[in-house]
Amino acid sequence: MSFLTFCYEYNNMPTISHLVENYIKNNLTLKKCLERDIISYHKLARYLKEPIEKELGKEVQQAALVMAISRVREKLGKKESALKEKIELKNIEVGLKTKVFCIDLRKNESLVKKIEKIQQECSSQITDIFSITQSTHELTIVAQEKYYEKIMKILADEKKLNVEQDLSVIVLRFGKEILYQPGFFDWVISYLSWEEINIYQIVSTLTELLIIVKEEDSPKAYSIIMKMLKTDKQNKI
Fold it and tell me: What percent of the chain has pLDDT over 90?
């Protein structure tokens, strides 16, 4: 369903401003460019002219598009500033764990029984990365390479959907108040996406966010997050 159809179904006439805002919000690149104010409003208006006219079914003046883009930019800026004001950046710690692997398996009764054995044998140190995530049909294990052989031996008869090695985990530690701040996870992840860092998987607990990336990307990813936190700490001073 298009945004225009949605508006008609709920008896709301779509406006240029609504369509432009919706288009930008659904395009991460445009959204980040506007947030950082590094894009020409007039060039963006020319880019949006055709799709917006197609949605509305009539001609749209470029000046109206520029005005709508300006309003979206102002709104995005206010939201990001408000988020940064609420988040206690000084309380966020960042760590990096290398030599991590991930196994994805089809969930079944025999596998569930083996998980207890894996937990007993492979979580000996409190600082180890060790995570088991279950969905309705699949199960994912994230652990450090030193446990690889043990886990693979226990799971020898199980069907593995995917096995990924040479991974690293960026660990963000924060106060539990972060859980009640809308947009925090998106704020962190969008910085990595902007820099074309592929996130292999994400795991979260009450006060930690684990971002799993390829080992070759980990130095850059770690640097991006540290720079992001440092920059925004300075902006708050």
Answer: 46
pTM: 0.69
Contacts of 140 (CB under 8 A, 6+ apart): 102, 103, 104, 105, 131, 132, 133, 134, 201
Task: Tell me what the mean pLDDT of segment 169-189 comes to.
Answer: 85
Residue with the larger pLDDT of the pair 186 and 47 = 47
Q: How buried is residue 50: exposed, middle or buried, by Cβ count under 10 Å (0-12/13-18/19+)?
A: exposed
Q: Which H or E run contains 205?
A: none
- Residue 156: pLDDT above 70? yes
Give the integer Cα–Cα distance in Å for 207 and 209. 7
> Cα 161 from chain centroid?
23
Helix 62-86 with 184-194: angle, nearest 10 deg: 120
- Bridge partners (DSSP) listed for residue 211: 170, 202
Kindly list the structural domains of the chain, giving each domain's residue range(s) and its CATH number in brackets, ordered by start: 3-86 (no CATH), 89-236 (3.30.2130.10)
Question: How far is the C-alpha of 165 from the C-alpha of 224, rounded, in Å?
Answer: 23
Q: Is 83 exposed, middle or buried (0-12, 13-18, 19+ CB in 10 A)?
A: middle
Of the candidates 122, 116, 105, 102, the one whose C-alpha atom is nearest the C-alpha of residue 158 is 105
Closest alpha carbon to 99 in 18, 201, 7, 218: 218
